[in-house]
Design a protein that fits this description.
The chain is α/β, with parallel strands linked by helices. 32% of the residues lie in helices and 19% in strands. It folds into three domains: 28 residues, no CATH class; 196 residues, no CATH class; 137 residues, Response regulator (Rossmann fold, 3-Layer(aba) Sandwich). The strands form four sheets. Strands 12-13-2-1-17-15-16 form a seven-stranded mixed beta sheet, with helices on one face.
Length: 432
């Protein structure tokens, strides 16, 4: 519409006493994205990318060497949070689960009868806080940990069949008046040649190598996750009846407990997936962040305090963990079932559809691909969120960030980093 016609139209409108919006006659919008692109309403289009809600999930922004949290990334803006699980609590639960199993099965677990309970450990990512915590949890529970700067050393040891490693020590376990040694025979980071960590295939190869050298000494297998644990189980430990303990409560691992898999840990992925999207939904709606979390929303969604905690200083929501063993595994057979207390549909008139950019750092990761994403896909419908799922290769950050070239098309972001140090790789894009 040219200026002469615009002025004439305005004069006519005033004469008729009408209220009109001339901006509707313009050929484009300023900044952001309009609703026709699925990016939300007109108000959302005016929000700068640096001010849009952001949730880090699964991998907490932190220093991969020291574990120190990256508070710059966690405080990127007022609507930035992290969603994960309580790594220390989960690690303690896993370590205790393994120790309890050994004690209950002490008469048969020492396969070669040498008085030494030998275990091997599959480590996911030496720079990942969750992996570090799980390694420490096993070593602390079994008495094999060695202090390093006030914490249990979490480094891989290679092999330690002779018990001479300085990274770990032999533990002692007293059962029924008899003393047993607990020895970490071997451990390594399961990292493939392309650089992907938590690699299941590498774990399957590792157990083959270990077994060819000292199979008769391996009495227990511990793994930082079920993906690696199941690879070991299927490659060797199932046939040799050696209990394997993982983490994540993936459906295949839970089912395998009935076939001899020792146990796993449910990190309440159903609660984590809900929280990942719920905090975004609340920020987008401009309601209290606790809505539908600790405070019941209008649809009836609410979480009880026994399934999650919130650390305000860390701006982090943590799901709590529970051991899954032969005693209760049938209650965990469907890992993709939404959590019933937060399974109620939101009203679209009050929580209209918004568009979210979300990446999965490694598309081949069993937990993320087979458990977490299906849960996200169930919750995104319930929360009226249109989520675009980006699959990473698990190796390089650029494989993901290169596909965040149009942030203005989205109302919010959920980010699962390849490396915990690299929060700035994403926030620098949103700051542009």
């Amino acid at each position: 519409m040219n200026m002469k016609k615009r002025n004439a139209f305005a004069a006519l409108a005033l004469a008729l006493g009408l209220t009109v919006s001339l901006t509707a006659c313009s050929s484009g919008s300023e900044g952001g994205t309009d609703a026709s692109k699925g990016g939300g309403d007109a108000a959302a289009s005016k929000v700068a990318n640096k001010d849009k809600p952001l949730v880090w999930f699964n991998r907490q922004p932190s220093n991969s060497s020291t574990g120190e949290l990256d508070m710059t990334a966690l405080n990127f803006n007022k609507d930035t949070y992290y969603v994960g699980f309580d790594a220390s609590q989960g690690a303690e639960v896993q370590g205790t689960m393994i120790k309890d199993y050994i004690e209950k099965n002490i008469d048969k677990i020492d396969r070669n009868g040498d008085g030494v309970i030998g275990y091997v450990l599959a480590i996911g990512d030496v720079g990942h806080n969750d992996s570090i915590a799980r390694t420490r949890g096993v070593r602390k529970a079994l008495g094999t940990g060695v202090d390093q700067g006030g914490s249990v050393n979490s480094e891989p040891i290679g092999t330690n069949v002779d018990g001479k490693s300085k990274v770990v020590q032999d533990g002692t376990l007293e059962v029924n008046g008899k003393s047993y040694k607990i020895r970490e025979l071997a451990s390594q980071e399961m990292k493939n040649n392309s650089g992907a960590t938590w690699d299941a295939a590498t774990a399957g190869n590792a157990i083959g190598t270990w077994a060819s050298s000292f199979a008769e000494q391996i009495d227990v297998i511990a793994s930082n996750n079920d993906g690696m644990g199941m690879s070991i189980f299927n490659s060797w430990s199932k046939d040799n009846k050696v209990p394997t303990f993982g983490y994540d409560a993936n459906s295949d691992a839970v089912a395998a407990i009935g076939e001899g898999y020792g146990g796993t840990i449910s990190q309440h992925a159903d609660v984590q997936a809900y929280l990942t999207l719920r905090v975004l939904r609340n920020a987008l709606d401009g309601v209290d962040i606790d809505t539908g979390i600790g405070t019941k929303d209008e649809a009836g969604n609410v979480l009880s305090s026994d399934v999650y905690t919130y650390n305000a200083d860390q701006r982090s929501y943590y799901a709590l963990n529970v051991a899954v063993t032969a005693d209760n595994y049938k209650d965990f057979t469907d890992s993709t079932k939404v959590y019933e207390p937060v399974s109620h549909q939101l009203d679209k008139t009050k929580s209209p559809e918004k568009k979210v950019w979300l990446n999965i750092y490694n598309s081949s990761d069993n937990f993320l691909g087979s458990t977490y994403q299906p849960l996200l896909e169930a919750y995104d419908d319930l929360l009226n969120l249109k989520v675009e799922y980006i699959a990473g290769d698990g190796q390089t950050e650029s494989n993901i960030t290169n596909r965040l070239g149009n942030p203005s098309e989205y109302d919010a972001f959920a980010i699962n980093m390849v490396k915990t140090d690299n929060g700035a790789s994403y926030t620098s894009i949103l700051n542009q």
